[in-house]
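Ticket #4471: complex job returned nothing on first submit. Input attached below:
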Amino acid sequence: MAPPKSKQRQILVRAAAKLFRRQGYSGTGLRDILAASGAARGSLYHHFPGGKEEIGAAAVTAAGGLVTETFAELSRQAHDPADFLRRYTRLLVQWLEASKFRDGCPITTTLLETTPGSPAITAAGQAVFADWHAVMEAMLARHGWPPERAAPTATAIIAGLEGALMLARVRGSAQPIHDTTDALCALLEAGLPTAG
Amino acid sequence: MAPPKSKQRQILVRAAAKLFRRQGYSGTGLRDILAASGAARGSLYHHFPGGKEEIGAAAVTAAGGLVTETFAELSRQAHDPADFLRRYTRLLVQWLEASKFRDGCPITTTLLETTPGSPAITAAGQAVFADWHAVMEAMLARHGWPPERAAPTATAIIAGLEGALMLARVRGSAQPIHDTTDALCALLEAGLPTAG
DNA sequence: TGTTATATGTAGACCAGTCGTCATAGTATC
DNA sequence: GATACTATGACGACTGGTCTACATATAACA
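Support reply: We reran it on our side without changes. The output follows.
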């Protein structure tokens, strides 16, 4: 990753990630990815000798990385954990509504389909979740949470967000996200170890 | 559903549900379902004239119904909401470990792949989630939660469970479930409106 | 029992689509 | 001009879901 990688490669990964998020991994054919990216079949196999599985892992890594960056940015802006969560879910709801609830989590669907069948994709997903968790944990620590409580709380936040996103997509409504965010914020505010 | 439906039909639905849960909807071919159930090709189209989509919806309904029954049973046994949650996640972890983290939520994967592309499957999923929510909400109400707080809390519980289940599967560990359960229990115990 | 009528199970044809491979052609960079 | 890197799209072996035609099982009734 030292060199900025081929432009064509980036186009392919982005197209793949977009499609995987909407239709899932198995539901998306190489044909779709090729059509969406304007690339040729052999070109894909040049950049991804491992075929579909390799581009799947790359898509998970890339899409997950964007979310990691968003988390990091918001974690810098937020005044406290609950504020962080509210800022993020505000964005989330915007994205969801803009796509009419078609774009869900960019990695969950793919991971549920391919874990543990594809070790490469599973590993990519584990790495992404670890990154997310690290950002959250660091944010909680920065706001005074003791380490032994920051780690499990970070996991619970990610779980709640993922579950809420899924429910929102199926229900076609942002309500599950609001409800879950409220609950998580109550938890974060109640659990604030040192007030203010 | 007045008659107990054909036995073969039930075998088909069960096999389909099992496969969808592990490999997803698109990742499971009719071929797999037929092989797993021992049925013949045309037999499937006799019981499910709507083809794969119809058996997908039936699998979601059937698998979701089993979970609803489990929720209802546990909700009868539990002393309070936190106790309910702990009882359920104990079962959940047992199932997960027994399948070596291959069997996740029986409906989430299918729904993420097919929402909103398949209205029939989406509707089946919405109905299942509504059932789960109703059971949870009733349980909270029975333990003194006011209605306006029971509904969003029930949603947050389901979201947390679903997200934790997904993380557990990807990580190959029950830890996310324990962490999320602890957080949710803290919320339920803190939020208990009338103590005892 | 024999004869229907209906419900269910079986077998295979069908074609569009799947992923992966290959020999070839194009384009940088030195 | 030589050498790498990149792009191309046709090809093949196979699987996808769907449908039609036939065989069997079950039930009803004379």
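Chain A touches chain B through 50 residues (CB under 8 Å). Closing as resolved unless it happens again.
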